[in-house]
Amino acid sequence: MRRIPLIILLGLATLGLARADELARTISVAGQGKVSAPPDIVFIRTGVTTESAEAQTALAENNAAMNRVLALLQRLGVAEYDINTTNFNVAPVTKRNKLDSDAVFVGYRVGNQLRVRLTDVAQLGEILDALVAAGSNRVAGIEFALDDPGIALEQARKLAIADARARAQVYADAAGVRIGSVISISEQGAQVPRPQRIARTMAVEQASAVPIAPGAQEIRANVTVIYTLLD
To answer: How far apart are CA 130 and CA 228, in angstroms?
Structure first.
């Protein structure tokens, strides 16, 4: 069995103690980065609801109005793949008499709902007006979002690291030590906003000159950074 010289063993032990001492002298800080960006896409939930005593009549009126809505969206430059049907239903309509608790059948209701994606947020007010004029009597909500939040998230992460460094520097200065190298970085979760839904149902007479305030989307990054501390 080969013997390792005592001086090497002592040297390794010294390095191990130094490394242990280095690891023991650390500081762990949390950092947060936040970036606000204006939304660059918007989703509209729109549709047509019709009622009639006969199901076929309600359906025919609904189809005619929905065809006008789809033709309008095409004229306004909305891509076909940015329009999808989210709900279609045919249901009986009943009403209750104030003097009678029994429900009375009065006809049928047909509903057809779309989700439309717009890549020009500035076009939203104009399109909402035009949709209602074309026959859409159900605008159930609008949702603002970022098409690609990755760039903003990258900026938020950089800001989070800078924030962690600044916090560590404050503690180090107060303790009379210096910040050394980074031992580890862990992300505690990035917060990318989901589409911000604004619920709204419009009647035809309420649709003129729709004012829109898209606001901003906020992206956050949270990190924990461990630094060594030096004399």
So the answer is: 62
List, in sequence order, every beta strand (DSSP E) within the chain. 26-37, 41-52, 83-96, 103-118, 138-145, 178-191, 196-199, 217-230
- d(Cα 131, Cα 138) in Å, to the nearest integer? 10
What is the mean pLDDT for each group of 10 consecutive residues in the chain (231 residues)?
A: 48 48 78 94 95 95 96 93 95 81 86 95 90 91 90 94 97 95 90 55 46 84 96 88
Which residue range forms the structural domain that includes residue 157? Answer: 24-37+150-192+221-230
Q: Read off the CATH number of the domain in which 29 is found.
A: 3.30.110.170
Calpha distance 173→169 (Å, rounded) = 6
Instruction: Assess if residue 15 is contained within a domain.
Output: no
- Cα diameter, the chain: 106
Number of domains in the chain: 2
**Domain stops at, among 125, 145, 165:** 145
Do 101 and 85 lie in one domain? The reply is: yes
Q: Are residues 76 and 140 in the same domain?
A: yes
- Angle ∠(210,149,225) on CA atoms, nearest 5: 135
Taking the C-alpha atoms of residue 26 and residue 35, their distance in angstroms, rounded to an integer, is: 29
Determine the residue type at 70: L
| Residue 49 to residues 25, 52, 54, 91, Cα–Cα distance (Å) | 68, 10, 14, 11
Supply the CATH number for residue 139's domain.
3.30.70.2970
